[in-house]
């Protein structure tokens, strides 16, 4: 009888101990926003989608904003700005190519990002990408 009682007690204690809540679980909150604008410009219908997201994991906030850009030749690019509170980057995607640039400094009109020999300067409505003597002007699609 005592053996049965001892086995039952041990199994109950083990069951309760295994059901203990993990204290290291993370609380996460995500917010997403998308805005699509359709423009009829001289009979040409075009759309521009701007997205943003914000993640909060145990008080550490990561912000992410994406904007569409258009070059003078009509080609398109997407720039995604990431800010995790410790570092800021911009990811430029165009023609199946992706460039990730690191934040260097704030300028009078925007921000300067740079990695290796490529740099990008932002203004409220433009993005200037430079590599060597080549400068590409991209206008924000409105």
Automatic annotation (TrEMBL):
Source superkingdom: Bacteria
Protein name: Uncharacterized protein
Species per Swiss-Prot/TrEMBL record: Epilithonimonas lactis
